[in-house]
Amino acid sequence: MVSNNPKFVVLSIDGVPYDLLSRLIDQGYMPNMATLVSQLGIRKMRSVQPTVSCVAWSTYMTGMNPGKHGIYGFIDRRPGTYEIMFPNSATRATEDIWQLLSRTGKRVFAMNVPTTYPPQPVNGIMIGGFLSTSLEKVAYPVGVCDYLRSIGYHIDSDAALGRSDKRAMINDLHATLEARMEAMFHFLNEESWDFFHTHIMGTDRINHFLLEKMVQNDPEYAPAFFNYYHRIDEFLGRLLESLPENTPLMIFSDHGFCPIKYEVQLSRYLIELGWIRTSKKPSHPLSIDPTKSRAYCLIPGRIFINLAGREPQGAVHVEQYQQTREQLAADLMKLQDPKTGEAVIRKVLMREQLYWPTGSHGIRMMSPEQVAQADSTFGKAADLIAIPHDGYDLKLGLADSTIFKKTELEGMHTYDDAFMVARGINLSVDNLEIMMLARHILKELRVEPPQDMDGTQDAITPIF
After folding, report:
1. Fewer CB atoms < 10 Å away: N or C end of the chain?
2. 308 shares its domain with 394
3. Given a cut of 50, is residue 330 above it in pLDDT?
4. What tens digit of pLDDT does each residue of 38-76 get?
5. How does DSSP assign 213-229, residue by residue?
6. What is the spatial distance between Cα 79 and Cα 380, in angstroms, rounded to a whole number?
7. Bond into 50 cis (ω within 30)
8. CA 373 to CA 404: how far, in whole Å?
9. CA angle (396 as vertex; 394, 397 as ends), nearest 5
10. Whole-angstrom Cα distance, residue 133 to residue 127?
11. Cα gap 422→128, rounded to integer Å
12. Residue 133 sits in which domain range?
């Protein structure tokens, strides 16, 4: 039953896989989550492709696929150049749920959700996520920054410590979490709100750098891993005590995680096959020789055809576009693990198979020439998207000398094993995808979703 004054709370926990959360519950590390799951159940949820946090959270907050909201990866190319950019809220092409709710008079709060920087004006408070450049610019309205500074708020933990000093990384993760939760309870209790969303990013960081050590039961780092999740559970318990029992609530992740077998330097593979020719003096991630390269890569697994008329020095004519894509896709599917011979790439998708900006899901009826020239439709989408098997983390690797590497990075994102725990809202059990959530939130708060919003169960078909 919908209350006379509906409210809605989201606690998102980045990158926590369904199986890991189930294990943490079963082994007693998360007793508050265990109680909640015993009452409400837990289900798997699919993410988005490519499985990158900024893409997944943009998809969540708009209820639209990347072909509409325009965020395709952590980095993107500047149209008409070989330069790169970092997409953020200013480059997103559609409104998010906080803006939609604000326009109907709802009071909103968001903290630390990826791709909410720069913070957009809302009817409430918006505190940006990990791409925020400084504490002085992280929040709307700007006066919120004074409070954040007073409590020693961290925009994000220092992920680089994961490669150099894991003990320092763990301490920094805890300091970041403590300040974030202090801010959460302050705004929860002191501000008026209808929709309240806090995001925990540290789980993504600790999974990237300690997941394998947890799996191997490392005597120092496995306990540290479990202790971090236990601390999150303690804050979850406090949150549940702070809310009326009938408050609609979602707790979920944006993607899963698995241990890394190899980091795969995809550009190096394409160099060895003759698809890419590097420049003699590489100076940035896209330092290719454009006159001799038929393709180039961006992370993770996004491959662009170096197309004449679209790229400034394109080497592939539009009449060759479809044949070139098919040849390149076939070569990508041949990539094998050097030790086991297992396939690295699970599937290669054409961009029109993955993005459907005009509404219908699936391949649009377009000629190869139309598909090649469809940047007005597909924005900055890659021409091919390589989807790896779990364990093979696709990297850029333009300057690397080898294709397969192992580094300090231990965990990678996965597509089909995010988790969802929901109270007071009816969600799909068998076909749940992160794109669906915005529509449900808006309806629960009595706001009609936009007509062009995707996110209905009938409109979504699993990619695999």
Report:
1. N
2. yes
3. yes
4. 999 999 999 999 999 999 999 999 999 998 899 999 888
5. HHHTT-TTHHHHHHHHH
6. 7
7. yes
8. 34
9. 110
10. 12
11. 24
12. 8-258+412-459
